[in-house]
Amino acid sequence: MSEPAGSAPRATQAKVAAGLRRRYRSELLFQAYGIGAVSLGILFVVFLFYSIFSKGYTAFEQSFIKLDVVYAQDTLDPDNHRSPAELAQANYTAIARAALRERFPEVTERADLHKLYALLSEGADAELRRRVLADPGRIGRRESVWLLAGDKVDMLVKGNIDRKLPEADRALNDQQLAWFDRLQAQQRVQKRFNAGFFTQGDSRNPEQAGVRGAVMGSLFTLLVTLLLSFPIGVAAAVYLEEFARRTRFTDLIEVNINNLAAVPSIVFGLLGLAMFIQFFGLPRSAPVVGGLVLTLMTLPTIIITSRAALKAVPPSIREAAFGMGASRVQMVAHHVLPLAMPGMLTGAIIGMARALGESAPLLMIGMVAFIADVPHSLTDPATVLPVQVYLWASSPERAFVERTSGAIIVLLGFLLIMNGAAVYLRSRFERRW
Amino acid sequence: MQTSTVVLAILALTAIAYRLGRRRSVSVAGGRAGIRDLHSLPSYYGMLTALWCLLPALAVLALWHLLDQRLIVDSVLSHMPGSVAHLPEAQRSLVLNEVRNVVAGNVPLASAAPEVQAAAREWRRLDGLSHTAAGSVALCLGLAGAAYSWRRISPKLRARNSVERVVVAGLIVCSLIAILTTIGIVISVLFEALAFFRAVPITEFLFGTTWAPALALRADQVGSSGVFGAVPLFAGTLLISAIAMLVAVPVGLFSAIYLAEYADPRFRAVTKPFLEILAGIPTVVYGFFAALTVGPLLRQLGISVGLDVASESALSAGLVMGIMIIPFVSSLADDMITAVPQSLRDGAYALGATRSETIRKVVLPAALPGIVGGVLLAVSRAIGETMIVVMAAGLAAKLTANPFEAVTTVTVQIVNLLVGESEFDSPKTLSAFALGLVLFVATLLLNILALHIVRKYREQYE
User: Fold this and answer.
1) How far is A408 from chain B (nearest CA, A)?
2) In a shared domain, residues A224 and A260
3) Is A421 a domain residue?
4) Domain endpoint, select from B130, B157, B184
5) What is the 3-state secondary structure (H, E, C) of B304-368?
6) pLDDT for A296-340, tens place per residue?
């Protein structure tokens, strides 16, 4: 073997070998970047859920104080009529406060009494009213009742008020803490399941605020959205996919659909405000307007997924239908649509899930007002779950933080159910041809 | 008559028309045995009759209710004392609003002024009259249509073709809604924006560096309600979007590369949906997370290293927005990377390249146009994102590049200017529409650019 012939490969080998360690190192580094990015993403998900659930799970429990209430005849029904209308109007706050005074007889100063009353919620009378209306025979008797505690007491029970803070920085003063400790020593303070969170509308008092109004508002809004966007979206997809020839006109429609899918949602809010409210004079804050705006917003998504579902139906089905003498409309209605329906429904559910989480356009059309009543129709003023989250998140009271997280958990629960349904539909009905 | 009752009555009539039309087609064919002589199946004759009943009636009803309010207003105005008709436009609409409130029952009748009471009574009377008239006209028309179509039924009538034409027309109308929506957006945003630019010159809006919509600087200022220089808003929007992209692009891109090229299929099957959870979380949740968790956290971190971080900082909003966009970037990049054919990788391996060299020198350049397009789409989402910045970025319109300070964005100002406002004539509220126009145009351009890049530079593989 002659020397010059072997020298070139050997020189290359040496060169490659010299660079090999560096190249392997950079290979490892590159993989490490990838693993780092994936773990960072997972970390973000975990951290997000942890921060919301750790703040929010306490919202499903509420503090109550047990008091011995006397249903005093002369406060509730001085004329002894026992008429439900009068009983519903009676002053139950007075008997709740009387029970507090009885428990702490040494408190007599007006200012102190005021602080004492703050231990109870302003909504504590609702439970007493419910009991008396259920059985007016309670009047004149004495009973131990668990009454709703005020939001600050609730925060103290849940450990969100630091006892070591100086009195001036604390939501409850020393005196109130002492009263609370006495109640707790007598086992008169308890956390119980917070049914009110699911059965009540919004309130300025955190301990009384519930998500019922927002859930109903979301339901009405989504109902309008679904009833409009699903049929319209499917019809548009069917036209573009099955009937239209490619012309400049259908190109224009397609460009529009693709662009609308990328328009920021707040612009749809501006459209709703200028068109539906200003021009057509529809009521502000109403679920029907919210539903219209969300319909326009979700339509592109539904059209795009419906077209994909139609495309997935093999042409042989269409040819077979034509071969049997079906017209184009019959072919679509009897054969293609039923086969594409599961895919379209999946797309519709995903679109509805997006609409359920949307809040920016609804702020524009006034669904952001404080509304305590639970809406009962499409035109009642209402708010929706994500906007309720926004409203509570901007409230200063500490107790609203857990309510906000609680509402987020409810919202995420609904989203989980909807996406789960979409996944189930897809796996159950999707056909591979 | 209530409109809903009228609609229900029309629907009932339609159902009856369907049955009658169907039955008649069978009877003109001479019983069940003669159906083969009919041009169409009997149900098509039924549908045709039903359509002849339904469509004219609904059309009349809709048109009537579109027009009657205006006529009622005119008539009520003419019945009011002469002074009202001569009031300037703005005051007249105030009076009308008063009357409208009484009519709607928001204000008790007895508490209103006597002339308002009279007008409200007149309004109610006309309203009732109009409803009754509309209902009866619609029902009569439905009956007449059904009768006409019923009489026309014969074996030769091409009922299926007519019904199918109506169906296709309906489909076309539905697909037109996309165009109408775009037109609606352009009209509603453009007109209000033009009204704004009449009060504030467009150059001042686009290039002014002070944004204070509620402040009058000089008494003689046009509109005299504030200064509208939107540059601080644009700067804030860009700053937050840039921070978001700094988070989202590396994390999204590298996780897409790792999951597509390195990870084993089982790991990928679990991790990919897990990361995509981030895409399904409502933006208001991110906003809450940014305002109550990330903001305070960054502030404390800042204090511990001696930096002054505002509790509402561009950094916290941008960071959280970046987290939101990660799955968007990663799923787009993933699609583009998996679309690169295996043969290219095999070629690189055959030349002795390591995996990372193959990815960096072969796969990424091939996938680049798609990735750049995806990143541009992500930028347009970041610019239009509202809730996170509303809750976490603040309202101070400062022209700064310091991510630790509070900045404001275009979307924050739109929300801030329009929530709770009902007057549409002040430059303050109109400016929100001008901002909306800028936002719409900017995102539109970004999307067109993204699509163009993808189309023009995409490699075509066999």
Assistant:
1) 7
2) yes
3) yes
4) B157
5) HCCCCCCCCCHHHHHHHHHHHHHHHHHHHHHHHHHHCCHHHHHHHHHCCCCHHHHHHHHHHHHHH
6) 999 999 999 999 999 999 999 999 999 999 999 999 999 999 999
- One domain, residues A27 and A75: no
A112 and A179 fall within a common domain:
yes
B251 plus B399 within the same structural domain: yes
CA distance B300 to B294: 10
**Number of structural domains, chain B?**
2
Tell me which residue has tokens 């030769």: B156
Percent of chain B residues topping a pLDDT of 70: 92
Residues of chain A found within 8 Å of residue B189, distances taken between Cβ atoms? 267, 270-271, 274
Q: Are the beta carbons of A256 and B179 separated by less than 8 Å? A: yes
Distance CA A42, CA B330 (A): 13
Q: What is the CATH number of the domain that holds A380?
A: 1.10.3720.10
What is the b/e burial string over A241-279, where b = at least 16 CB atoms within 10 angstroms of the residue's CB?
Answer: bbbbeeeeeeeebbebbebbbbbbbbbbbbbbbbbbbee
Q: Tally the domains of chain A.
A: 3
Q: Are residues B309 and B435 in the same domain?
A: yes
Kindly state whether residues A231 and A123 are assigned to the same domain.
no
Shortest CB distance from B356 goes to which of A30, A258, A387? A30
With contact defined as beta carbons under 8 Å apart, do B377 and B450 qualify?
A: yes
> Do A43 and A67 share a domain, yes or no?
no
| Containing structural domain, residue A406 | 212-429
From the list B69, B175, B383, the residue facing A239 with the nearest CB is B175
- Is A328 at the interface with chain B, CB within 8 A? yes
Q: Model confidence over B244-255: pLDDT tens digits?
A: 999 999 999 999
Closest by CA position to B196, among listed B417, B398, B389: B417
Amino acid at B447: N
**Total CB pairs under 8 A between chain A and B:** 261
Task: Tell me the per-residue pLDDT of B147-167, one tens digit each, with 9 for 90 and over.
Answer: 999 999 988 889 999 999 999
Q: Which of B135, B157, B179 is the last residue of a domain?
A: B157
Neighbour-count burial of A146, counting CB atoms closer than 10 A to its CB (0-12 exposed, 13-18 middle, 19+ buried): middle
Residues of A in contact with B324 (CB under 8 A): none
CB contact under 8 A, B255 and A38: yes
Token representation of residue B454: 């993808």
Whole-complex ipTM: 0.89
Residue A1 confidence class, pLDDT cut points 50, 70, 90: very low
Residues B129 and B237 occupy one common structural domain: no
Among B433, B382, B442, CA closest to B185? B433
User: Phi and psi at residue A144, in whole multiples of 5°?
Assistant: -90, 125
User: Could you tell me the two tokens for B235?
Assistant: 């700067």
Residues A179 and A237 in one domain: no
Which tokens hold the place of B453? 């890049």
Percent of chain A with pLDDT over 70: 98
